[in-house]
Fold this sequence. Notes:
Largest sheet of chain B: none
Order of helices and strands of chain B: HHHHHHHHHHHH
Helix content of chain B: over 70%
Distance between the termini of chain A: 16 Å
Oligomer: heterodimer
Number of helices of chain A: 13
CATH class of the largest domain in chain A: Alpha Beta
Strand order of the largest sheet of chain A: 6-7-8-3-9-10
CATH topology of the largest domain in chain A: Rossmann fold
CATH architecture of the largest domain in chain A: 3-Layer(aba) Sandwich
Number of helices of chain B: 12
Strand content of chain B: under 5%
Amino acid sequence: MPALRTSGLTKRFGDVTAVQDLNLTVEDGEVFGFLGPNGAGKSTTINVVLGFLDPTEGTATVLGHDVASESHRIRQRIGLLPEAFDVYENLTGREHVVSAIETKGARDDPDAIIDRVGLDSEDARRAAGGYSKGMQQRLALGIALVGDPDLLILDEPSSGLDPKGIKLLRRIVREEVERGATVFFSSHILGQVEKVCDRVGIMTDGEMVAVDTIENLREEIGAGAVVEATVDAVPDLETVRSIEGVREASAAGDVVRVTCTAPEAKMAALRRLDDAGTVRDLDVEDTSLEALFEKYTDGGTDDEIGDAADAPAATAPTEDDATAAAGGED
Amino acid sequence: MGIYTVARDDFRNARRSYIVLGVIGVFAGLMALIFFSEMTIYDEPYRTLFDAVAFVAFVFPLFLAPLCYLSIAGDRISGTITYVMGLPNRRWEYFAGKFLSRFGVAAAAVVLSTAVGFAISAATFVDFPDVERFLIFGGVSLLYALAFVSLFLAISAGAPSRSRAMFGALGAYFVLVLFWFGFLPFINLETALDTVADVPGITLSETTRTYIGFLSPATGYLQASKAVFAGVIDQYPAFQQFNTDDELYAELWFNAVVLLAWSAISLAVGYVSFERSELG
Lengths: 330, 280
């Protein structure tokens, strides 16, 4: 049984279509990255899943329960970190966690949860209305963890978190998956989901345009890493281009740029360069992720891809390719 | 579990914001002032209870409005509702929890101010206060608080914004208290009914008009409080305002039903609108 499944899910607000014919399946036990720019329809989808909004068309089930008729049972088994929410400003963080434990009928120790999400125990006894955004996010994460949920829905969980907090968030996501939970991780920043997600879905303008592993998506649009090497002498670039997995090689002064579509091509290209003359400096940019994201969310003109990837040599895939990628989700 | 947790959190949050202290403390303080200022004017505490009734009828809703008008609308505007409803709370549990919390505050204000009035009367008035009269006063005032808390909660449940919740609450106060009672010249129920009666083909008997007149929570409460003055109605000219007709509207149970109906209908309409509304 999938943890989350939507079928033909559509949500319209008057004339505005926020989510259009969404077919999505999140398998049990996976970490699914739900990506898209602000306003793409991610939060609307989540609000339908939570039973806050009624779907205009289509259906959605969570852990086998229908979102429209069994919302209470669903919310009993999920943990939610909402994007736009506010605390009871005069209740302490700890009181919020205690109420969540009570409402779920769980047996958690509130202090253990507070400690786990890195909220200072003194802060936890202060009114939550005075919390910084980062503290509030940690509190929300703690509330989401109450009752060992089968599905964690994290909507922009890293917003407001410092690097330490983001690292902690990733660790908790991994721990929860090891426990057996499914994690649905929504974000507008690809870099924050790539490290933890098994698969990602990219949503834009209310439609899911691609669902796959990051590796497959990267292959799909033919983007890879860019190796930038400063060399003594620029060799014949044809020898570099002939390496399998290298798409393009160019030189500007003593800097050679090699765009690789396959990970193993990077080292091969470097060897070729080092054979011809000493490599004095080296930089590897994994810019393809941003290119990938922008490709799917901006409609992907050549210029945008080029700018984002900082790799003018990269050939942007056509719109048909993107559609093919989107269609390949099954 | 859900109702209790929602009610406790809401109450705790309100208590620490001093709104609870404001409503209960200031209201009881004003009630104390009424009794202090009249202790040298009247010998009988029940005469001061008459002024207390008027104070409750016209002023108490103005305390209940700020207490209740944002109870649900405010949570929706700020997003606190996402925290509560993201947990396994049913919508009726949330609604009932909010109601219990806010009505609890209103009830505490009634109980405390009644007790304060009794204590001051016992200490300063020539006649010792009659416990039964104070209990009846407290009882009908609780019904009045129930009607208005329910009404303001319903308005809050249906209001999509702060301003609409505020205008809704003030509008309800204006229509049901000032307009219905006839506080303002020309803009009141009597002139409105006159206008209706002027329409050819419509006749309003005097009895029908009186029934309509007793259908607002404020007029219902004022008439219900006649029970406080049982046996002494002829003691003061002011008491002649109570209707003593041999009709249902002059009976306590009828007025009590009117107040309960305001509460029940408001809660039902408010809940249905909340249950159907989309959050987030």
